[in-house]
Amino acid sequence: MEKYDRSQRYLKELDDGQHEIALSTDDLHVSYGTKEAIHGVSLAFERFKITALIGASGSGKSTYLRSLNRMNDNIFGTKVTGKIMYRGLDVNSNDIDVYEMRKHIGMVFQQPNPFAKSIYDNITFAPKRHGERRKAALDEMVETTLKQAGLWEQVKDDLHQSALALSGGQQQRLCIARAIAMQPDILLLDEPASVLDPISTATVEDTLLQLKEHYTIIIVTHNMQQAGRISDYTAFFHLGDALEYDETRKIFTRPKIKATEDYVSGHFG
Amino acid sequence: MTPRKWDKVATTMLYLISGFIIVVLAFLLLYILISGLPHVTWKFITGRSSSFAAGGGIGIQLFNSLYLLILSMLISIPLSLGAGIYLSEYAPKNWLTDLIRNMIEILSSLPSVVVGLFGFLVFSINMKLGFSILSGALALTVFNLPLLTRKVEDSLQAVHYTQREAGYALGLSRWETVTHVVVPAALPGILTGMILGAGRVFGEAAALIYTAGQSSPPLDFSNWNPTYIASPLNPLRSAETLAVHIWKINSEGIIPDASAVSAGSSAILILFVLLFNFAARYFGNKLYRHLTGARERG
């Protein structure tokens, strides 16, 4: 692989008072055991926008994303240092209630992972655990979120069938519906379309563009066209560093860093 | 020989081996049922056994077997669930938990007669429980617990990690995720393991000879107060189970119809174990469909 000068960076600073920031990290390091996977990444994510994290496999973009709602906590030997600021609170501090925080920062994973329950229960299960008992509210939640995820028309007649009987694309949209049923502020998506066929991918992308009105979305993707189509901002990751962060349109037309230019034009590696 | 021919030879061999196993099993099963079932009457199933005369039944032994089974499952199911959940979901991966897993592995291959003697020394003598249903149930727990724990752990491990992540990402605690996501998804496997374990316990003799004893006191089936000495439910009375009964009349029985009683008892024993197996399958599938919301088809 070509060696790029990793000291050359261009990271657009959004926390200048002009933009409303939903979430930001300050010098975030992540290490697994003795190996550091993320070497101090500082990015700020604008509210109600879609930010894409791109980069080759092993660039650390998924690791970075997963630390934003502390999903890496569950992986033995993982250490995360630095700040993750959300509403003036450092999410990465010990006195944060991780479970409460994850209600505000939701996540959709690469592999569709619906529970082995019915479609209805998949969506209402967590809200019920968090105390919502009213049947009418739950029914409405199921309908709204399934509509937002673009799945309602296909499943409305049989909400009590097993989620496992759905196709992969439908399962992933159910997972999105399940995540937004929690009404999070921020939605993290880890390559949500990587296992989907082009039609399902297009539906999911439409879904995300609509969700952007109410949610701040951060999405990891391998698919450059996808990043170009749906995101407002793009961050380019390389070997555990964020090398370039800018408006998507600039990243794809006039990148400032050589590594980014090579990556988006397909000459990378 | 071409790879194609090798494949044929290997396939044929595998078919022959499996066929041989099936034939042996079918022969055993049919032999026991054909020689035993003619002796099975309602009077035989419910009647009292006799010590000297012909025509004794196995009512009390059957009751003892079932009671002992229930008691030992009552002890071992919660323990194995707790241990299995801990090992699968909570235990850090280090030398200590590896050691525990190895111990469980070794325990599960312990010969049942050793478990019986251990139970005799610890429960009957040391804990002064004597020859009693409780001693027997504890010995059976020692016998069954390792396999049940293993089965629970395996069933939980078979639930994909992404299911747990799904729970965490929705703000559920680890305990909520384990109890409401992982355990339900693993329940069919756990249930199957439990019922198969029950079958194993039901047919067990060696572990009980020295713990539950080889005879039952006169029982009064009109008094079900467990503290009453002649009550069938009294856990401190001795109890001869069906499997022990079969062993006993074959080794030291002096009743003239020993072989008939033994054959009939074996048939009943086999029928119950078969029943457990089919129940395991039926309820495992049914539960899975219920939990996943999948329709019953066909």
UniProtKB/TrEMBL annotation, chain A:
- Which superkingdom heads the taxonomic lineage of this protein's source? Bacteria
- Keyword Plastid present in the record's keywords: the answer is no
What does the UniProt keyword field contain?
ATP-binding, Cell membrane, Membrane, Nucleotide-binding, Phosphate transport, Translocase, Transport
As recorded in UniProt, coiled-coil segments are: none
Q: Where are the transmembrane segments?
A: none
Query: What Gene Ontology terms describe what this protein does at the molecular function level?
Result: ATP binding
Pfam families documented for this protein: ABC_tran
| InterPro entries tied to this protein | AAA+_ATPase, ABC_transporter-like_ATP-bd, ABC_transporter-like_CS, P-loop_NTPase, PstB-like
Q: Which residues form the ABC transporter domain?
A: 23-264
| NCBIfam families attached to this UniProt entry | 3a0107s01c2 (TIGR00972)
PANTHER family in the record: ABC TRANSPORTER I FAMILY MEMBER 17 (PTHR43423), PHOSPHATE IMPORT ATP-BINDING PROTEIN PSTB 2 (PTHR43423:SF10)
Q: What protein name does the entry list?
A: Phosphate ABC transporter ATP-binding protein PstB
Q: Which organism does this record belong to?
A: Lapidilactobacillus achengensis
Organism ancestry: Bacteria, Bacillati, Bacillota, Bacilli, Lactobacillales
UniProtKB/TrEMBL annotation, chain B:
Bilayer topology annotation = Multi-pass membrane protein
Q: Kindly state which keywords UniProt assigns to this record, in alphabetical order.
A: Cell membrane, Membrane, Transmembrane, Transmembrane helix, Transport
Q: Gene3D superfamilies per the record?
A: MetI-like
Q: Which PROSITE patterns match?
A: ABC_TM1
Compartment annotation: Cell membrane
Q: Write down the superkingdom of origin.
A: Bacteria
Bilayer-crossing residues are 12-34, 66-87, 99-123, 129-148, 258-280
Which PANTHER family does UniProt cross-reference here?
A: ABC TRANSPORTER PERMEASE PROTEIN YQGI-RELATED, PHOSPHATE TRANSPORT SYSTEM PERMEASE PROTEIN PSTA-RELATED
Recorded family membership: Belongs to the binding-protein-dependent transport system permease family. CysTW subfamily.
Q: What is this protein called?
A: Phosphate transport system permease protein PstA
Instruction: Give the source species.
Output: Lapidilactobacillus achengensis
Q: Which gene encodes it?
A: pstA
